[in-house]
Structures are given as C-alpha cells and as structure tokens.
Write a structure and sequence with these properties.
Largest sheet: none
Helix content: over 70%
Radius of gyration: 21 Å
Number of strands: 0
Length: 280
C-alpha cells in the first residue's frame, strides 16, 4: 500500500511562503484592485438610476435594435423596482474590474503564445487546469493572500475568467492568413507593425469573442465570490439560499439574469460589428 502523498501540507507550506515573502506585492495588488472597483462603483452609482437606465436602453437600441433597447429599459426598471439597483451596480463594478484585469493580463499572454510555440505548450496545460478546477477552490488562496471582501473576489474571478481571452487571442492571431503576414514581411514591417496593423485587426472578432466569454465567466464568479464577502447581488442570492427565502432568491436571480443577458448581447453585438468590418 503506497502511503498518501503529502500534497495538501506541501501546498499549505508553499502558500505560507508566498504570503510572507511577497506581502508588499500583495498589498500593492490589493490597493490597485480595490481602487479600480471603487472607481467603477462611483461611475455606476453617480447618475440617478433612471438616467442610467435610459442611457443603457438608448445605447442598446442604437447598437442592437429596438428589441434589446426595450428589454434593457424594462429589465433595468424591474431591477430598480425590486430594490436591487445598488447591489446590481456593485456587481457590475466587480465584473468590469475582473474583465479589465483579465484583458490586461490575457491579451499580452495570448499574443506571446501566438508567437512562441514553447510558450503555448507551457501555458495550455495551465489553462486546462484553471478551467477544470472547481471555482470554489480559487476562493481559498484568494482569502489567504487578500483577506475577505471585494479584492479576493476579483482575484478569484480573474483566475477563473482569463483563460478564454488567452486562448482566443492566441487562436485569432494564428488564424490570420499566412500570405498576409508574408506580404507584411515583404514590405519590411517590423514585428510590432505587423502585429498592430495586420494581425490584431484581422484577429479582432475572435479576440472580442474571448473577451465576451471572459465577461460572462466574471459575472458567474463574482456571484460565487459573495461567499467571501464580495459585495453585490451575489450576497442577496447567498443570503436567500442560507435562510431558505425562495422568493427573495428568485428576485435576486432575476437581477443576475437581466445583467447577464445585457452584458452578453451588448458584447456580442460588438463582435458582430467587428466581423462585419472585417468582411469589407
């Protein structure tokens, strides 16, 4: 009988070492992320609810037609009527922060993967690991390094949501026709010029599809992150579940669904526009 491998103690010792050695770094990350969440939250809370609703409905109408505009108007008015407006804006701030950090981290990494097969072969198993690990597991180290609150919620959401941005950025750049890349080389383009003027514009629809998936995964994770003190509508869902308040849980769930549909349709419309531009 082979004795049990001491994986759990080894992981705990490693996490302890990271926490004590890089305490300053984690404090810096915590300050940056906390400040970003506060900035988004201020922007979303600043206008009166009715003004924000009309602006979003008008944007949805202009970008995707009257059906999404009408849905935005009715859906957000329902959220405000149910009393979840402030918490929905808090959730939106968390989602935007998580998506922003994911894009800042994921885009350069995806570009690096596209340019270097060794990097891609190294990163791909890590992405598989990140996407198959149960989401709740990410909450544990996040709490250890950053305590309770919104910051560990954002960190856990970034780990959970960043793989699609990396994968689809890599895929989009690799799918750029080789003859176009070769033509750019023949005109003496530098690697930077080739990337910004040929590869990224042509890869933009695939890249935006990755960002769309990242936003949706961020939303699902920030709801779960309410278990470690992240603010937002997830706290209402969690409270309703723990107190067996089915009606309140359903109302909070409706607010999450409306926000998810809006984020998905609006970002999908951006992807479609990019594809349309790519055909001209």
């Amino acid at each position: 009988m082979v004795p049990k491998l001491p994986i759990a103690p080894a992981i705990e010792r490693f996490v302890d070492w990271l926490g004590s050695t890089f305490e300053f770094f984690f404090d810096l990350i915590s300050a940056i992320i906390g400040g970003t969440v506060d900035a988004f939250s201020w922007v979303f809370h600043f206008p009166p609810a009715i003004v924000f609703i009309l602006l979003v409905a008008f944007w949805a109408y202009r970008s995707a037609g009257w059906m999404l505009g009408l849905f935005s108007l009715i859906g957000l008015l329902l959220v405000e009527n149910l009393g979840f407006w402030d918490h929905t804006m808090d959730t939106l701030a968390l989602v935007m922060t998580s998506a922003l950090v994911s894009v800042v981290v994921g885009l350069p990494l995806g570009i690096w993967c596209a340019r270097n097969n060794s990097v891609q072969n190294t990163v791909t198993p890590l992405l598989d690991f990140m996407q198959t690990m149960p989401a709740f597991v990410y909450l544990i180290p996040a709490v250890f390094f950053f305590g309770l609150g919104v910051v560990p919620g954002v960190i856990a959401s970034v780990i959970f949501a960043v793989p699609p941005t990396i994968r689809l950025t890599n895929l989009g750049i690799r799918q750029v026709p080789f003859d176009l890349v070769e033509a750019a080389d023949s005109f003496g383009s530098t690697p930077g010029q080739k990337l910004w003027k040929v590869q990224l514009p042509l890869a933009m629809p695939t890249l935006m599809a990755g960002i769309n998936q990242t936003i949706m995964l961020s939303l699902s994770m920030v709801v779960i992150a309410s278990m470690i003190g992240a603010q937002g509508i997830g706290a209402d869902v969690y409270r309703a579940v723990t107190q067996l308040k089915i009606g309140e849980g359903f109302e909070a769930g409706i607010a999450v669904v409306i926000l998810a549909i809006l984020l998905d349709r609006l970002t999908q419309n951006i992807v479609k526009k990019k594809k349309g531009e790519g055909k001209h």
